[in-house]
Amino acid sequence: MSDAVQPLPVPVTQAGRDGLAALLARPGEALVALDFDGTLAPIVADPEQARAHPEALGALSALAPKVAAVAVVTGRPAEVAVRNGGFADVPGLEHLVVLGHYGAERWDARSGKVSAPDPHPGVGAVRAELPALLEGTGTWVEDKGRAVAVHTRRAPDPQAAFDALREPLTALAARHGLIVEPGRMVLELRPPGVDKGVALTGFAREIGAGSVLYGGDDLGDLPAFSAVDELRAHGTPGLLLCSGSDEVSELRRRADVVVDGPEGVVRFLRDLADRLG
Fold it and tell me: How many other CB atoms are found less than 10 A from the CB of residue 62?
């Protein structure tokens, strides 16, 4: 890494420029919140093999001591995100929080423990019915404990499988009191009432954040983008960072800054840490 501090991208919106300015002016009040898959970790065919970008921990541990809080907000179980991200026992990340299952679970680096409510009974019901519904589709089911995700990326025609399954999976979820969260070649069946926006807003209020940066890459991150918009409307500056891909154009359109995937996110975090001295 060069000794020279690299310039940060200029946000394309005034709200984004205000958010970045507030973060730089008062970093001790800032919350930096980030999605995991596709943002801190490259997307891979088998989600179990997803790992944080090799330079992600270094960038996060350089940034975390300079801001109020760093949180990873993910649809994964918190323990899985901690394991795949390598977040436990990292110097500089002693106050990291992982909000798993869209905020239904919480892991704190200080205690190393996960807190969570009891699972929704509908998850077990759909888990039992999925094999018959998915037979012959070439899809793969990821059991997240508090949710199940149907991945179509391995199917002969991933997009066709995604489109064909969306309606029957939505009907199955509704019968058991669940909702379907679409993503990048994945349809996740999970309980209602929790999403990344709710998780982000709750944590920002808990710590009294004076500014919020949120970075994501997928449709599941749109509620968090909306939460930042709502915070900005009520006087808390915010910055929306998109880990760019060609699969989710809506997130790109709403972002203040678009970077080139997890590598670009890591570079942004590292450069931000450098700017904060």
Answer: 16
113-115/140-143 β-pairing: unpaired
Which candidate, 92, 23, 27, 8, places its Cα nearest to that of 264?
A: 8
Q: Which residues contact 15 (CB under 8 A, 6 or more apart)?
A: 232, 237, 238, 256
The 10 Å Cβ neighbour count of residue 29 is 19
Distance of alpha carbon 129 from alpha carbon 27, whole angstroms? 49
Q: Is 35 a catalytic residue?
A: yes
CB count in 10 Å sphere of residue 28: 9
Q: Distance between CA 266 and CA 226 in Å, rounded?
A: 23
184-203 confidence digits (pLDDT tens): 899 999 998 889 999 999 99
Cα distance from N-terminal residue to C-terminal residue, the chain = 15
Encode pLDDT of 73-116 as tens digits: 999 999 999 999 999 999 999 999 999 999 999 999 999 999 98
pTM for this entry: 0.82
Which residue is it, tokens 């890494």? 1
Contact 269, 63 (CB under 8 A): yes
Place of tokens 């409307």: 233
Cα torsion 155, 160, 163, 164: sign = negative
Task: Identify whether the C-beta of residue 242 lies closer than 8 Å to the C-beta of residue 39.
Answer: no
Question: Among 3, 18, 35, 157, which one carries the catalytic annotation?
Answer: 35
Please check whether residue 47 is in contact with residue 37, taking contact to mean a CB–CB distance below 8 angstroms: yes
Report the number of secondary-structure helices (H) and strands (E) in the chain: 9, 12
